[in-house]
Automatic annotation (TrEMBL):
The keyword Nucleus applies. Residues 1266-1383 form the Rho-GAP domain. The keyword Iron does not apply. CDD domains: Ras_like_GTPase (cd00882). Residues 592-772 form the PG1 pseudoGTPase domain. This is Rho GTPase-activating protein 35. Keywords: Cell membrane, Cell projection, Cytoplasm, Cytoskeleton, GTP-binding, GTPase activation, Lipid-binding, Membrane, Nucleotide-binding, Nucleus, Repeat. GO terms for cellular component: nucleus; plasma membrane. Coiled coil: none annotated. Residues 769-791, 1088-1108, 1143-1179, 1203-1257 are annotated as: Disordered. Pfam families: FF_RHG35_4th, Ras, RhoGAP, RhoGAP-FF1, RhoGAP_pG1_pG2. Residues 800-970 form the PG2 pseudoGTPase domain. The lineage of its organism: Eukaryota, Metazoa, Chordata, Craniata, Vertebrata. One of its GO terms (molecular function) is GTPase activator activity. It comes from Coilia grayii.
Length: 1383
């Protein structure tokens, strides 16, 4: 081989010979000096190709093989490298060694018989067809390895690497080695070839040996020394590169790195590669069941895998993989073990939860107990192969049962000990909790509403602190507080019911005055149940207001027993008995049981939010439900008065998502708080998912705090300024501004139902629009209820009885009603308007009678005691509930004493009626009451066991039915007698139960404004046709009828003007009440034929003395409004029913006018019978048990709440009334005409009262309150104000419900009139007045005219014409069509 030349552009090829100590074991020891490993690492640097075992002891065949080829040197092959200078070179690596015969252990004989020292110094090498050497395994198996021949010819040696083993070799003396190396170096030096001294096995090197080697090199005139380690691959390439640099003089002096520096660099390189490889394995291998072949194939192309395998080899890479797999498996085992151990407490709690069962057992004994449990296999699994880590159960993730051998571990026993200790602690803690609860119940210091901070010092002791955590005892205390508060509220509600008579005597309405609220508190103040809520005054006031709302507006929804109102129970019972007749009761019950939820935030400062929440709750039912447009909603209120950024004042909580916000203010500061709070809310929700809070529907309302009064009390200018500021803020916030609330005198509310309805409707509309945009269909409408139907007459019954039941009584209502609803004598009414009424077929007094029995609650019956025709009452009360008896008494107070009453005391068992002292007391009170009012009393048993007492039979009521039948005519006559004037005023038609024609006292209908609203329950069972019935006519008596008719007309036309006098008493001939004047076909009776009036004379009653109703004429107004109350009612499908004061005609109270109707005329008032000796008395006057709160009725009779009432009569009025007809006959005028004029004249001769005070106008008005001629002209015959109002209503309000019925806003009406007086060209559309405001102002214009539209001068003629035509029509209506044809 020729040496490389500088001018040669080809890659130079060098031949490097590695030499060192060789020979027999005696000469070199048991191992070589590392020549083969050095060559192996340089030629094949990959860790997988590196072999540590290269033996020199060969068999003869191996020695003669093509690899050794009978030579004592090995050809390692040709290697290419890039030097540091960037130049590439190639090298032939040859190892000079000496092979030993494995038989003789002497060197093999070869072609060259020279000793090793001389052979090693040979500079030319040649061997025909010699193969490249890989490893010892190649010998004899050359065909399994790559076969590459040594170049033909002789190789020219370019340099030598002299190896010195610096490790502690076995059976080898280092000094002897150095002698051999010195001798060998001397022979090599003779060749003049470069030599590099290579120290091998430096990873196991001895410091002295290394030092001696360096000393040897120094003595040899700068002999280069390279410290290497073939096993660690340190400085191997450096040794060969250093020799190349010595061979090629142009490359400069070689730079040799110290061993430890090179080792550090190599270690860092390996560590970095290992880290990258481990990262690769962690990312790829996630399951401990992965195998190396699959993973290695997946990593073949990864550079991290290649690098690490090159440096460390596949074996180490596999080892790291196996370590990772082992770690994954151990982690999996540990996870499963932790899972098993975490489940073990649950298993122990489920299987051995009783302390007494395991307290005396060891852990081994407990394991046996566990195996005997029924649910053992649910928690544990017994594996055949152990341990469980080596079983398939380890990887069965679906089976979470605990291997039973896990219980043998120490950790499991520790868990059992903890479980045992837990059971002991729980037993002790349960005892402490029981003691704590008992302490709370027995302590007199724990009262409803008392904060924990005030009570803890009286309750807590050392044991409580030791065994109970603070959240635990606070939770127990809060639960106890909730229980006693609920109980106190229930007791207080029962107390309110026990004082039912007080509330009805006070005549409380929607705005109870401060005086009446004070009277209620004065009466109830000494009651312990009242004092129990001393710490919860707001809740107590809310309960009182809610009860007042129930008294004033009694419905099933406002009933304290809701949703278990007895009316609902009656409807269900009737629906089960007669499903075909009452199908809607079931639907109504189902529909009312479900209510949509409305979450409303109330934002206000300084107590405004809390007060408003309490007032709104007072308008709700007991379960916080609110009726809106005939539908029930669950109303949830969240008052907020602090910083909205705090969690306690957050709009949104885990259980509350607001649908809208009602913002309250009463000052500039509170308005600023509202604005700042809304700004904070928007800022806090900006960019968040719940940013819908920033788009909540808002409503702004100006209110006053309770006790301030009206806005006039805070100053008109201040109020107007606050309204203007509020409207400006509402415009900026893009929210609705509600009309300011008008509270009552001192104790009024800040809100009315109209405003709440407006807020809730806006929220519902917003939710509907959101739902529509999201594609959700609108909710279906509610099914119609029975109360939606108009009442119709029921001509099927002979007489009508009302059975009253108390809501919440403990007896079984079904058992009470079952004897009445037996199919053999009970059937439903055919009239759909009969509500909860049935027909009973009974034999009374030997005659078969049909009894219409109406089943109602007391609160549903209160409203019709005076107005509906009822022949008798069955009043039921519970013998164990005082409130039931008190409500019965309150009901009887206003019942006329001629109406028969049957009292039924109901007990749940016979023992209760006989053994219970309280029940006996209530029974005695009921029996005494029945004796005082001359009623009937019975006691029955309706228990919960399903057995009806033998006493509870319908025969028990036959004496009562007999009495009802005997007094029927008296009751009917008295009812028509009392209700004839009211029939014209209130548009009520008086009916008799078996007649089909209208009553002769039925007059022309008044306007809708003058109609009293129907009671909350439309009681169709209590209205039926009645009237007179003329005898059937045949051809023979036609002229007699005509003669009678002529006589009737003559009397009618010539009757004298009625005198204003008291009605005398009326006597009835009961012996003629059944048969003599009955028509056999229709059973219609003539009232006049069954009544015996006293003879005519002075002071004696004559029906002709009384004038006809005067509804067709204008009625003068009083000076003060009648208190009204607008409520949503489901029977009107969303209409607003205006309920007026039901006692406006009471003898002790004055009548009050209203915005929308006029008061009765003086004639109608004077036609009312006096209270002395004429009309029947009330039961309150016959019993000491009743009317115990009558003094309150007298005290508060001057007007209704928040109003002043009518003006008192003047002395001239009283004198004029006493004079009677004598004062009128002095003028010598027609008495009839004078009586009519006198009846129409205003009381006395006092001037006309001032216009009503509903709208306050300037004192000097130039338009309103003037005569009509002052505001019209020939060019404008219609007043300009009237024209504007009519045009506005026709243009914008024809679709508005209740245009003239619903009152407008008083402040807007006043403002409208004031603006019109200032500018007659006022544009109503631009001012955006509501339709009801304009309609109210229009009505006020006519009401304030000095002279009515129908002048007084025409009223006499109008009355005469009306009386004549009305009488003829009524008389003709008594005939059948055939009879009228004959006439």
């Amino acid at each position: 081989m020729m040496m490389a030349k500088k001018q040669d552009s080809r890659v130079p090829i060098y031949t490097v010979v590695v030499v060192g100590l060789s020979g027999t074991e005696k000469e070199k020891g048991q191992c070589g000096v590392g020549k083969s490993c050095l060559c192996n690492r340089f030629v094949r640097p990959s860790a997988d190709d590196f072999h540590l075992d290269h033996t020199s002891v060969l068999s003869t065949s191996d020695f003669g093989g093509r690899v050794v080829n009978n030579d004592h040197f090995l050809f390692w092959g040709e290697v290419g490298r890039v030097l540091e200078e960037g130049c590439e070179c190639r090298m032939h690596v040859v190892e000079q060694t000496e092979f030993i015969d494995d038989q003789t252990f002497q060197p093999h004989r070869s072609t060259a018989l020279q000793p090793y020292i001389k052979r090693a110094a040979c500079t030319k090498l040649a061997s025909a067809e010699k193969l490249m050497y890989f490893c010892t395994d190649q010998l004899g198996l050359e065909q399994d390895f790559e076969q590459k021949q040594m170049p033909e010819g002789k190789l020219q040696v370019d340099g030598f690497l002299l190896c010195v083993d610096v490790s502690r070799g076995m059976n080898r003396n280092f000094d002897d080695q150095m002698k051999f190396v010195t001798n060998l170096f001397n022979h090599l030096g003779k060749t003049k070839k470069p030599i590099v001294l290579v120290l091998t096995k430096c990873d196991e090197g001895v410091e002295r040996y290394i030092k001696d080697s360096h000393t040897f090199a120094i003595t040899k005139k700068n002999l280069p020394v390279v410290e290497t380690s073939a096993r660690s691959n340190v400085n191997v390439d450096l040794a060969f590169f250093s020799l190349i640099q010595l061979i090629d003089k142009s490359r400069g002096k070689p730079k040799i790195s110290p061993y430890f520096e090179a080792l550090k660099h190599q270690s860092q390189l390996i560590a970095s590669a290992k880290d990258r490889y481990e990262w690769l394995v962690n990312n790829i291998v996630k399951n401990h069941n992965e195998t190396w072949p699959n993973i290695s194939r997946r990593m073949q192309t990864s550079p991290e895998y290649k690098e690490y395998v090159f440096l460390e080899g596949t074996a180490k890479a596999k080892k790291l993989f196996q370590q990772h797999i082992h770690r994954l498996k151990q982690e999996h085992i540990e996870r499963r073990r932790k899972g098993y151990l975490s489940t073990l407490p649950l298993a122990l709690s489920s299987l051995v939860s009783e302390l007494a069962e395991i307290e005396h057992l060891s852990w081994a004994g407990v394991q046996k107990v566990l195996e005997s449990k029924k649910d053992f296999e649910h928690w544990f699994v017994v594996l055949e192969d152990a341990p469980w880590e080596d079983t398939p159960h380890l990887d069965n993730m679906e089976d979470e049962r605990i291997p039973f051998d896990v219980l043998d571990t120490t950790a499991a026993e520790i868990i059992f000990d903890a479980h045992l200790e837990h059971l002991r602690n729980e037993c002790r803690r349960a005892e402490i909790r029981k003691e704590f609860k008992a302490k709370l119940m027995s302590s007199p210091f724990v009262t409803p509403g008392k904060p924990w901070e005030e009570a803890r010092s009286f309750i807590m002791n050392e044991d409580f602190y030791q065994w109970l955590e603070e959240p635990e005892y606070l939770d127990i205390y809060n639960r106890h507080q909730k229980a006693i508060i609920d109980k106190a509220k229930e007791d207080f509600q029962e107390l309110l019911l026990e004082y039912s008579e007080l509330f009805y005597e006070l005549e409380v309405d929607a705005k109870p005055s401060k005086e009446k609220m004070g009277a209620i508190q004065e009466v109830l103040g000494e009651e312990q149940r009242f004092k129990a809520l001393q710490k919860l005054q707001a809740e107590r006031d809310a309960l009182v207001l809610k009860h007042i709302h129930f008294v004033y507006h009694p419905t099933k929804e406002t009933c304290p027993s809701c949703p278990n109102c007895v009316d609902s129970k009656i409807e269900q019972t009737l629906a089960s008995c007669f499903p075909a007749r009452y199908p809607s009761f079931t639907k109504t019950h189902l529909s009312e049981s479900k209510a949509d939820r409305i979450n409303l935030v109330i934002l206000g400062k300084d107590g405004l939010a809390r007060e408003m929440a309490n007032e709104i709750r007072a308008l709700c039912t007991n379960d916080d439900r609110y009726v809106l447009d005939g539908k029930m909603y669950e109303l949830v209120l969240r008052p907020i008065e602090g910083n909205v950024r705090l969690p306690v004042n957050s709009f949104h909580t885990a259980t509350f998502t607001p649908h809208g916000c009602l913002c309250l203010y009463n000052s500039k500061e509170s308005l600023t708080y509202v604005v700042e709070s809304l700004d904070k809310l928007r800022e806090s929700t900006l960019g968040r998912r719940d940013n819908h809070l920033s788009q909540l529907p808002l409503s702004l309302l100006l209110v006053t705090k309770r006790g301030v009064g009206t806005f006039g009390d805070i100053g008109a200018e201040t109020a107007q300024t606050l309204i203007a500021q509020g409207q400006q803020v509402a415009g900026k916030l893009q929210c609705s501004f509600l009309d300011p609330a008008s509270p009552g005198t001192g104790y009024g509310r800040n809100v009315n139902e109209r405003q709440i309805n407006q807020v809730l409707k806006a929220l519902l509309e917003n939710r509907r629009s959101a739902g529509f945009r999201s594609g959700s269909p609108p909710p279906p409408p509610l099914p119609p209820t029975i109360r939606d139907l108009q009442p119709e007459p029921s001509p099927e019954a002979d007489f009508r009885i009302v059975m009253c039941l108390m809501c919440g009584d403990p007896y079984d209502v079904d058992q009470l009603l079952s004897p009445f609803l037996l199919p053999q004598h009970c059937r439903p009414t055919s009239n759909l308007a009969s509500d909860t009424s049935v027909l009973l077929e009974q034999t009374v007094g030997g005659h078969r009678q049909t009894v219409e029995l109406s089943l109602l609650s007391y609160h549903a019956t209160f409203s019709m005691r005076k107005t509906k025709l009822v022949h008798g009452y069955i009043a039921v009360y519970s013998a164990r509930r005082k409130a039931s008896l008190e409500t019965l008494c309150a009901f009887l107070c206003e019942v006329q004493d001629i109406i028969p009453v049957q009292l039924l005391a109901v007990g749940e068992s016979q023992a209760e009626l006989t053994d219970s002292e309280s029940a006996r007391e209530l029974l005695n009170q009921g029996e005494d009451l029945a004796h005082e009012i001359e009623g009937r009393f019975s006691r029955i048993v309706c228990g919960g066991g399903g057995i009806i007492s033998g006493l509870h039979r319908l025969d028990l009521l036959r004496p009562f039915f007999m009495e009802v039948m005997e007094k029927r005519s008296v009751v009917e006559a008295t009812h028509m007698y009392d209700n004839a004037p009211e029939a014209a005023i209130t548009n009520e038609t008086v009916y008799s139960p078996r007649c089909g024609s209208p009553s002769p006292v039925t007059m022309l209908l008044d306007s809708e404004e003058d109609m009293e609203a129907s009671p909350p329950y439309h009681d169709g069972t209590l209205t039926s046709h009645g009237g007179f019935k003329m005898p059937d006519l045949d051809s023979g008596d036609t002229f007699s009828v005509i003669s009678d008719l002529s006589t009737f007309e003559s009397k009618l036309n010539n009757k004298m003007a009625p005198q204003v006098r008291s009605k005398p008493s009326v006597t009835f001939d009961l012996r003629k009440s059944f048969n003599p004047y009955m028509d056999p076909m229709t059973h219609r009776r003539s009232l006049t034929s069954t009544m015996n009036w006293p003879p005519s004379g002075e002071g004696v009653y004559d029906p002709s003395d009384y004038a006809e109703p005067m509804d067709a004429v204008s009625k003068p107004r009083l000076s003060h409004e009648e208190n009204i109350y607008s409520v949503p009612h489901d029977s009107t499908q969303g209409k607003i029913i205006t309920i007026r004061n039901a006692n406006k005609m009471h003898s002790n109270g004055g009548g009050n006018g209203s915005d929308s109707e006029a008061e009765s005329s003086s004639l109608e008032r004077r036609r009312k019978p006096s209270a002395v000796g004429v009309k029947p008395r009330l039961y309150r006057d016959r019993s000491k048990r009743l009317g115990k709160f009558s003094s309150f009725r007298t005290s508060f009779s001057i007007g209704s709440d928040d109003e002043l009432g009518v003006l008192p009569k003047t002395k001239e009025d009283e004198v004029g009334a006493l004079k009677g007809d004598n004062s009128l006959n002095e003028d010598g005028e027609d008495p009839k005409k004078r009586n009519i004029l006198r009846s129409l004249r205003r009381p006395g001769k006092k001037p006309r009262p001032k216009p009503r005070q509903s709208i306050t106008k300037p004192i000097e008005s130039n338009y309103f309150g003037l005569p009509l001629v002052s505001v019209v002209s020939p060019d404008r015959p219609i007043p300009l104000f009237i024209d504007k109002c009519i045009r506005y209503i026709e243009a914008t309000g024809l679709t508005t419900e209740g245009i003239y019925r619903v009152s407008g806003n008083k402040a807007e009406m006043e403002s409208m009139q004031r603006q019109f007086e200032q500018d007659h060209g006022l544009d109503l559309v631009e001012k955006d007045f509501t339709v009801n405001t304009v309609a109210g102002a229009l009505k006020a214009f006519f009401a304030e005219l000095p002279d009515p539209l129908l002048p007084y001068s025409l009223q006499t003629e109008l009355v005469e014409a009306f009386s004549k035509s009305a009488t003829l029509r009524l008389f003709a209506r008594c005939f059948s069509p055939q009879q009228r044809t004959k006439l």
